[in-house]
Amino acid sequence: MNSDCTQEHTVHVDEFLYDNATVDALCDEGKLARNYCLQCGSFSTRPLTFISHSLSREKLLLIFKSVLPPLDNKIVLDIGSRLGAALFGAYVYSKAAKIVGIEINSDFCNIQNKVIKKYNFQDRIEIIEGNIAHRPDVILSADVIIMNNVFEFFMEPEQQTSMWRFLRQTIKSGTLLVTIPSLEETFSSLQTGIILSEWVQELPSYNPDAAGITLSADEMLEVKQYQIM
Ligand SMILES: C[S@@+](CC[C@H](N)C(=O)[O-])C[C@H]1O[C@@H](n2cnc3c(N)ncnc32)[C@H](O)[C@@H]1O
């Protein structure tokens, strides 16, 4: 009993005075520590931030079942396809005729190709290894483009700006663009000079209840659908 209560690493907090909610609040305020450093013993630690560079299964359901209209006979392009999550989501949750992923990193292309081969997805999914900036032809062939925070963690703001200017020039009118996060949020920290109201029109979800999943309100708000004007 209480064998894990070593002298140096045990904090005595009387529940009569401090209930769980109060302890949580004190930890959030930094007045009480919940962790200690295994190397130096310091109580001065902070939680790490976790970030996903792939779409979750719930978000894929939301995008392909609720947000987008039926994709029969359509070509879907995922810019920066990484592990292939959006491609596999499009394959399973939509009837898109062709699903294209372009990815700059060759290791990720190899992983995606292995999965595609393993599960026989070749009939509808194709991976292109390369930089989207050099493939306007791929952009022009797409009816639907998915962009899950493609550039923010992978290039400097100046490069991000020129990528967005290139996309502004290249994506054809009528294309559906699904972005995570919103274009408004992405552009708020970049000087693109692009006037969103002249480029895109935000569209509501095609069938809001169809996915039948529970995502937090914040997560739902991150997924936006636009049509290029
Ligand atoms: C945040 S991940 C998105 C992953 C995937 N679309 C998903 O939603 O699961 C962004 C990916 O874009 C790739 N990428 C960044 N810049 C690119 C570019 N210019 N052309 C092609 N891929 C790029 C990165 O290597 C990274 O794998």
UniProtKB/TrEMBL annotation:
Domain of life according to the entry: Eukaryota
SUPFAM superfamilies: S-adenosyl-L-methionine-dependent methyltransferases (SSF53335)
Domain Methyltransferase type as annotated: residue spans: 77-176
InterPro entries: Arsenite_MeTrfase-like (IPR026669), Methyltransf_12 (IPR013217), SAM-dependent_MTases_sf (IPR029063)
Pfam families: Methyltransf_12
Recorded GO MF terms: methyltransferase activity
PANTHER family the record matches: ARSENITE METHYLTRANSFERASE, RIKEN CDNA 2700097O09 GENE
Protein name: Methyltransferase type 12 domain-containing protein
Upper taxonomic lineage: Eukaryota, Metazoa, Ecdysozoa, Arthropoda, Hexapoda
